[in-house]
Amino acid sequence: MKKVVGILFVAVAAVLMMSSFAGKGSGIEFSKITLESAKKKASKSGKLIFIDAYTDWCGPCKRMAATTFKDPEVGKLFNKNFVSLKVEMEKDDDRREIAKRYRVSAYPTLIIIDGNGNLVKSVIGFKTKAQLMAIAESVL
User: Fold this and answer.
1) 24: DSSP letter
2) pLDDT for res 134
3) Which of 103, 10, 84 is nearest to 42 (CA)?
4) d(CA 9, CA 5)
5) Beta bridge partners of 123
6) 24 φ/ψ angles, rounded to the nearest 5 degrees
7) Could you say which of 28, 38, 51, 61 is catalytic?
8) Please, what is the angle between helix 72-81 and helix 129-139, to 10°?
9) Catalytic-role residue among 58, 74, 85, 98
C-alpha cells in the first residue's frame, strides 16, 4: 500500500510540475498592476501599453482570452513590445478612467497607449491571431 501511495504521489507531482511549465512563455503575459504603474513601466522600458478592456460576461472576450491571447506567437510579439493589462470594466479600479479617457463603449475594446497615456490605437471586437498581430505590428 505504501508503494502505491508513493507511486501516486510521484505521478501527481510530475503532472503538476509539467503543467506549471507548460504555460510559461506561451501567450500574452498580462501584468497585474495599475494603469499608472504600467505607464511608468512603459516609459522606462520604451514599450507601449496594451489594454484588454473586457467584462466577465462577454462571450467574445472569453474566446479571445482562451485562444488569441494564449497563442505563443502572439505572446512573443506582445511580451517583447508591450506592457499588457487586462481591465475588467465593471470591477477593476482603473475602469472609470479607462472608459472615459479612451471612450470604451463595447467589449472587448483593445487599447494601445504610450507611456504618457496618449491613445495610439483602439479597436473593438474579437480578433484572431492574425488580426491582433497585424494591429500590433501597425503601431510598432
Assistant:
1) T
2) 98
3) 84
4) 6
5) 110
6) -70, 130
7) 61
8) 20
9) 58
C-alpha cell of 67?
Answer: 485562444
Q: CA separation (Å) from 12 to 4, 20, 54?
A: 12, 12, 35
Residue 113 has phi, psi (to 5 degrees) of -130, 165
CA distances from 109 to 12, 82, 90 (A): 40, 16, 13
d(CA 77, CA 79): 6
Other C-beta atoms lying within 10 Å of the C-beta of residue 123: 13
What domains appear along the chain, each with residue ranges and CATH number? Answer: 26-139 (3.40.30.10)
Tell me if residue 61 is catalytic: yes
Distance of CA 102 to the CA centre of its chain: 18
Residue 71: closest CA among 102, 20, 26: 26
Mean pLDDT in residue range 21-46? 87
Whether 58 is catalytic is yes
10 has a pLDDT exceeding 90: no
pTM: 0.82
